Amino acid sequence: MKKFLGPLMLLFLLIAALPAFGQKKHTFEIKGGNFVYDGKAVQIHSGEMHYARIPHQYWRHRFQMIKAMGLNTVATYVFWNLHETEPGKWDFTGDKNLAEYIKTAGEEGLMVILRPGPYACAEWEFGGYPWWLQNVPGMEVRRDNEAFLKHTEQYINRLAKEVAHLQITNGGPIIMVQAENEFGSYVSQRKDIPLEEHRAYNAKIKKQLEAAGFNVPLFTSDGSWLFEGGATPGALPTANGESNIENLKKVVNQYNNGQGPYMVAEFYPGWLAHWAEPHPKVDASGIARQTEKYITNDVSFNFYMVHGGTNFGFTSGANYDKNHDIQPDLTSYDYDAPISEAGWVTPKFDSIRNVIKKHVSYKVPEAPKQISLIEIPSIKLDKVANVFDIAATQKPVYSDKPLTFEQLNQGYGYVLYSRKFNQPISGTLSIEGLRDFAVIYVNGEKVGELNRYYKNYTMEIDIPFNSTLDILVENMGRINYGAEIVRNNKGIISPVKINDIEITGDWAMYKLPMSETPVLSDLKNVKVYDNTPANAAKLKGCPVVYQGTFNLTETGDTFIDMEQWGKGIIYINGINIGRYWKVGPQQTLYIPGVWLKKGSNQIVIFEQLNEEAKSDVKTVKVPVLTKLLSN
Question: What single Pfam family name could you report for this chain, choosing any that match (predicted)?
């Protein structure tokens, strides 16, 4: 017996190590006009939820919330720029661990729909494209371009190494993979590109996915009137936002050999929100009725979003329209979704759950316990430093003209553009190429703001003899949707002019990517002040970094109240939780409890405007996402 014990024990350990969804290998196919799971026709009741918008410690809780709403599937985009942070440098760890996200979904009994793009949209910075693609010679994103397709192939192949083994064909939970994303919209926006070239590009992305080893059914998703440009042979066409069942079936039949299955890959129970604009609201009862309409008419669907989460750090994207050259998205991606930003049950959740429970044969579990909340009445900010002093510690980049973020090899954050004037000059300052928000200083004193959202590119200025002009420029998120996605450089991308005279010569640029927390105690050669009223008064109007510590006896989710502040970003224990801006409608920022700890915690706030000195900040238990203030 002893000679068999070793092999038997090894076999036992191998079996025990198999993931839950791997215990039995399932099948999924599109056959006879149906989605077929283990040989039986099924409806897909899916909800979109993005791994990168939720701390990984909360993934399982959110999957349980999705199950409790009655859904059987979760869908997620993959964000290329989240993983390839610079050319050839990949990161799939922590909150970026997509494979773990998919495994956990399977363990919770959910099928998975993967949407790898390579274009995502999703109100995400640059639609998921890495910013550095813009530095690749001869590159144009999202078209039949050799330089671009070389990088998409590398991305898709690297992604396949992470998750291809998690397809249902290999015993995992991934049942379908999307090829490209809403490409029909782009075709309609880029009529300067021949339709044949659009179709060639779309087909090549599908081929790259297949060659990388994605062998589950592929699909496309577009508005139903955009299938001509977006559909591609061999991929199931699905219709986004289509509420008319008759029209849905007609257009899918037209592009899918006269048969289904029929699916709405983006069914909108809420909508996206921009800074300085009202937060859209979508009626819960209408969504519940439409859900029932889909179920009773054999239409599969994916709620976009079932749970939005948060655009932490610099991940939020932007749109634009005829009145605004940029419309930056909020830090919160609550989306008025059925599951709130912090993972709470909402009336919309209950309405949808009640409908689904009436029509499904499987058991719908109760919602898991809500994650605990805490409130911190006051966090003292005891240290403060001038950002100009922080910038002065680094070696500037000099150029005859202002350089873009990309030319400076910087993706996100801020750049301080500085120029010394030996002779006085006054008149109209013009920065037509501002991308996106600038605070203007003369000799360290704030004299104005320019703002791409309001198309405000000019102001009057007076620069005395022997003075310094400083322009602190913020990237507020690259455009993620529409034809302008191909013009996404940041910083100052055109000449700076005064009285229509181009200002050249000896521009100094100080890079402030804010990729790491500017911990004041760690900064060498920087004057750090005690945050007293006298010192605060000296720094009024200057961009500053405030720092404080606070002690906790218990942890939990909370929301930091920034309504009385100006504009900036916040770090909690070294994590950038996102942007705030006084204009609203978002006035609080979500702090996940897993990023807090018992005992000492640190907060750092970069306040760009600093119109009023601050000595403390508080948190609240209820978010404020719909309070719009005048700028």
Answer: Glyco_hydro_35
